[in-house]
Amino acid sequence: MSIEHNDVLLEMRNVHIEGFADEQWHPIIKGVDLTLKRGQVLGVIGESGAGKSTLGLAAMGFVRPGCRFTQGTVHFNGTELIALSETEKRAFWGTRIAYVAQSAAAAFNPAHRLIDQTCEATVRAGISSRDESRSDAIALYESLQLPDASNIGERYPHQVSGGQLQRVMTAMAMSSRPDLIIFDEPTTALDVTTQVEVLSAMRKIVEHYGAAAIYITHDLAVVAQMADDIKVLRYGEEVEEAETRVMLESPKEAYTRSLWSVRALEKTEEKGEDIVLSMQGIDAAYGSSKVLHNVSINLPRGKTVAVVGESGSGKSTAARVITGLLPPTAGTVQFNGEALPSGLKSRTQSQLQRIQMIYQMADTAMNPRQTVDEIIGRPLEFYLGLSGAAREQRVLELLTMIELDESFLDRYPSELSGGQKQRVCIARALAAEPDVIICDEVTSALDQIVQEGILQLLLRLQQEFGISYLFITHDIATVKAISDEIVVMYQGEVVEQGLKSDILSPPHPAYTELLLSSVPEMDPDWLSTLLKERA
Amino acid sequence: MNEAPESYAAAAEVAVVRKRRGRLERIWLALKKAPVSAWFGLIVLSAYIVVALFAPLLAPYGEAEIFPAPFGPWEEAHRFGTDQIGRDIFTRLIYGARNTMGIAFVTTLLSFAIGGGLGLVAAINRSWLDQILSRAVDVLMAIPSLIFALMLLSIFGSTVTSLIVIIAILDSTRVFRLTRAVAINVVVMDYVEAAKLRGEKIGWIMRREILPNIMPPLIAEFGLRFSFVFLTIAALSFLGVGIQPPTADWGSMVRENASLIQFAQYDIKAGLTPLLPAAAIALLTVAVNFVVDWFLHTSSGLKDEH
Fold this sequence. Notes:
By secondary structure, chain A is an alpha/beta fold. Helix content of chain A is 38%, strand content 26%. Chain A is built from 22 helices and 20 strands.
């Protein structure tokens, strides 16, 4: 970050973008200015719908289908991009300006080898020959610390992990040594332990080649590690922009401060004695591959047990065993002191009613063809036999509980925001009047400010109704906010279980240590310090 | 959206809410944007339906009424002449719409009930039942369906009932495959799992959770299958094992009057007579396809954005 920032590379002035929906043009970006110098990394943060991605794409002179520029200019290296034709713009894309998308898995073609996809842009643009760009790709893989750099390119996208794929995508973006890289939430889909590796690799390579970058994210702690400056967006307008340290220490606007405060939420832990749900010595397998080994977890009544671990650690499988979707090969699940039948079909309606589930992706957890009224009302009809006015009444009560009103009754899921969708899912679980709710990463797909709202709602409901939560997550901030006890899982085994304060304070088993230290902190030096410690 | 709330409120989160429109209003909006081909298809289709429904009112004579002169010319009393035993061809064309379309419609419905139902069950079950059903369907599809239908019809006799049942079963294999393929994508959704966890019966899951989400391709397929069933019936009738006389039917009308075509060099109108029912079949097939194309285009999201 020692490069002199004098030379202006990208200058966006008064950019307005509109999107077409429901027979009307709606403003998405309302007059944003952006200046980026060579070698500078600018972080763009904001909630979903703030126009972050649209702004990032606009920096390439591109708008998504169904959108249009209405005003403003985008000067890249002295060339005005908006006015150029599609073909002329293509001369810049992939060579002078590169784009790293959020979901690497969706951005790769599953039918081609990684190295061919990495080299495609440079070879097609005629920058270098196939052999040159292949050896260059391998060098890039090496500098991105990919394992077995000389051969990993021969694999197909499904043969590498998500973190590795994200790094290959960064290599792909770097292959033409662009002047500008746009990172659009590149680590959002990754585990914290993987995120650290990807972040450090990306930071290193950006610094090494002196490229300028726009880093789009909703995670403040991440952006603090990457960016020289931070720009906060809301409703398509700039809230404020300042140097990273200044921004973190003394944000000017109330909205920015509210973004900062989210991570402060913390529940005071309580020990519970009365065990409502317990897994005892559970082994489970998908076909011949064993996923759970002798897992025992106890959930006290009215308390929250957070299950943490990276993806593949068996967190969600444990939930599937409890719900009966995956009968265990050994061990029992006890509920209210009685053993639950292992399979879903042999459970009684009241057993099903007492354990409810909330999913990570609220989008797919609700039938897109049912209205909010139908979604929340169905458990009422099904379990409680309510109908007519009594059902109506109860649905409204539930909507009030989740802080929504009756205007939502006839909406379809596609007409709800991310947070509202998750609230409706909570109401559906609540409608069954359960003892236990299993929350499977319920906040990880949401913006921080919305996350806080959901977590507070869950806490309030717990106090009011004494519901117990089994809260599956990989985010330690969430764990602090909601849990009484913590279970750490790794490769299908429980590493440790105990009260939150015990688990979070040292000494830790090695894996817990790695997990905890990988959680980004709101300190611009955190990543450097961490890497130094680990080295 | 312009007034940003100071503090966070769940109800104030921004989401795109579509305008509430009545069903009629939505259909009218869609129709206004429909291309000419869709309009053509819709008009032709409605005309056929009106003719089929009001056949006895529209037809000048009775369906099987026989006049003294066979192979009569086109004239005032018999607009398209008479057939080989002296029945009015215009009348039989009108009744043919009713019989052929009615039977094709019932057959398609039945094949969707069988194929769609089993396809959904297979998609939800995904185990031995799915294997048995899918392999059985493979076997059925391996046999050329027209030949198989001919064989079955000659065993069970060419009654309207056996015609409907046999064609419906043979055709349901394709519906089964389509339904199973599209339903499998929906079955893995969390909301279906949520319904299973709630303890819902398979009937509810099929009807309320899956079916509404796979309707567009099924409706489009319904239109296409209707055309095919209709062509199959016409073909079987032409071969003589389809709809039996004296019931009027376009396929058998082509066959009965086919020989007239060689008189075209003497009287062009006589030559055209066997082509009239064939044209009726062709026009309906084209119309149905136009409508299906338009429906698929609007419902699948396969739109040009620019």
